[in-house]
Amino acid sequence: MSLYKLFKTDPRCETEGVTLDYGDGVKIRIARAGGSNKNYIKAMDRLGRKYHRELGLDILPEETATRLYQELYADSVILGWEGVSDEAGNLLPFSREAVLKVFADLPDLWNDVRAQAQSIELFRADLTEREAKN
């Protein structure tokens, strides 16, 4: 397999997003955390400038870092969702605040979304070309 097939990504998918299907009608649309997602890169740069000292000295408390990264994703990676409900089963309209609440309540979901958004697999050009043909 060529390196291009392994590593070339689709910039459109990186910014317009792909859908994670969690079953039962629950879908979360995400952009890539990096790559061609300029919103993410700009937001990450702002975060780095704001917390430069703490990051450089590695003194940012883990809880604070997690909250900041969740805010970063809510602002620049999570593009929308369908079928997401709260613990009582009430549908949650998509909003920044709802994303942050769901991530705080479901840390394993947060970990999965973060891993998916950082994976080039979902955004590879050959994968999106194959899906378009099907």
Alpha-carbon distance between the two ends: 21 Å
- Biggest sheet, spatial arrangement of strands: 1-2-3
* Low-pLDDT sequence parts: none
Task: State Rg.
Answer: 16 Å
Shape: flat
**Quaternary status:** single chain
**Strand content range:** 5-15%
Number of strands: 3
Please count the helical segments.
8
Helicity level, as a percent range?
55-70%
**N to C succession of SSEs:** HHEEHHHEHHH
Q: Domains counted in the coordinates: how many?
A: 1
Helix vs. strand class: mainly alpha
Mean pLDDT metric:
92
Largest sheet: 3 strands, antiparallel
Strand and helix map with partners:
Blueprint (H helix, E strand, L loop, with lengths): L2 H5 L3 H6 L1 E4 L5 E4 L7 H13 L1 H6 L4 H15 L1 E5 L13 H10 L1 H12 L6 H9 L1
Antiparallel strand pairs: 1-2, 2-3
Characterization of the model:
- With 134 residues, this protein is mainly alpha-helical.
- The protein has one domain (3-133).
- Helices cover 57% and strands 10% of the residues.
- The chain has helices spanning 3-7, 11-16, 38-50, 52-57, 62-76, 96-105, 107-118, 125-133, and strands spanning 18-21, 27-30, 78-82.
- The protein has a three-stranded antiparallel beta sheet with strand order 1-2-3.
- Helix 3 (38-50) runs antiparallel to helix 5.
- The longest helix is centred in the middle third of the chain and has 15 residues, at 62-76.
- It is flat.
- The two termini are 21 Å apart.
- The model has no long low-confidence stretch (mean pLDDT 92).
